[in-house]
């Protein structure tokens, strides 16, 4: 006889929601279901398997050792189901009506805009949604597959990216900052200054870059806000060199002359979180982005040869 599953995909999704939300009440709000229905679904899941997956301590539910193993495997199964349904949707609709592209804030967007200029005449009316993301927020989008294309400075394990360019981060202060005329600055001394940082867009940010060493930090949403604060003579910030060219040119900003470690490099890459289900419009836009970088590199090579 063919094997008949004892459990359902819905039961596993409910278990995942209870764990991710930290309890039945929170998961009930998230799923718009009653708490009793979630309790019943998980209890039935455990009963059918004959394995205890969760134990409740106080108001929170915790995974058992067996539950951790089963949950990890269940996420793979539910993701495969989602990918399968997305593939069917792509096959059924053909050219996608909307393309979502998540872009790391540290990526120089002029390349993307050139690509969109090439893409537009062939876009067949597809809407394009550009999502700005920062640090682990970009990795989160990739892992949760919330965009068709992603430009990132950190390629998560298990994914492959097409290299695009390298962003150079430099330490910047306003020309009115007290250390602006000091000359060489030690990194330890800089860490004593107010640091302006860009907000990580992840739901659960992780400070992994090693740049956030200052005790006093102000957090802003984008480079423009950071630059405006710097121009008042307040704090320092690690910023992409392309974002501070105007300020360096007009003298309102200046580079911190670090005794060592004066720049940080972030390689940018283009990837698709679900390659097999990528629609024709997204594939075309990806080609346009890659071509924008290839054309720029060709120009740089030509200039070198001519000089």
Structure description:
By secondary structure, the chain is an alpha/beta fold. The chain has 3 domains: 9-91, Orthogonal Bundle (Arc Repressor Mutant, subunit A), CATH 1.10.10.10; 94-164 and 267-306, D-Maltodextrin-Binding Protein, domain 2, CATH 3.40.190; 167-265, D-Maltodextrin-Binding Protein, domain 2 (3-Layer(aba) Sandwich), CATH 3.40.190.290. 42% of the residues lie in helices and 21% in strands. It has 10 helices and 11 strands. It has helices at residues 9-21, 24-31, 35-49, 65-93, 110-119, 136-144, 187-190, 223-230, 245-250, 280-306, and strands at 54-57, 60-63, 98-104, 127-133, 149-152, 162-174, 195-198, 217-220, 236-240, 253-255, 264-271. Strands 3, 4, 5, 6, 9, 10 and 11 form a 7-stranded mixed β-sheet that branches. Helix 1 (9-21) crosses helix 4 (65-93). The termini are far apart. Residues 301-307 have low confidence and may be disordered. Belongs to the LysR transcriptional regulatory family. Keywords: DNA-binding, Transcription, Transcription regulation.
What is the end-to-end distance? 76 Å
Which residues sit in consecutive blocks of at least 5 with pLDDT less than 50?
A: 301-307
Broad shape: globular
Helix content: 40-55%
Number of strands: 11
* Number of helical stretches of at least 4 residues: 10
In the CATH hierarchy, what is the class of the largest domain? Alpha Beta
Order of helices and strands: HHHEEHEHEHEEHEEHEHEEH
The CATH topology label of the largest domain is D-Maltodextrin-Binding Protein, domain 2
Number of domains: 3
Major sheet: size, sense and barrel closure?
Answer: 7 strands, mixed
Strand content: 15-25%
Overall residue-averaged pLDDT value = 87
Query: Which radius of gyration do the C-alpha atoms yield?
Result: 24 Å
CATH architecture of the largest domain: 3-Layer(aba) Sandwich
Oligomer: single chain
Kindly report the name of the CATH homologous superfamily of the largest domain.
Answer: Periplasmic binding protein-like II
Structural class: alpha/beta
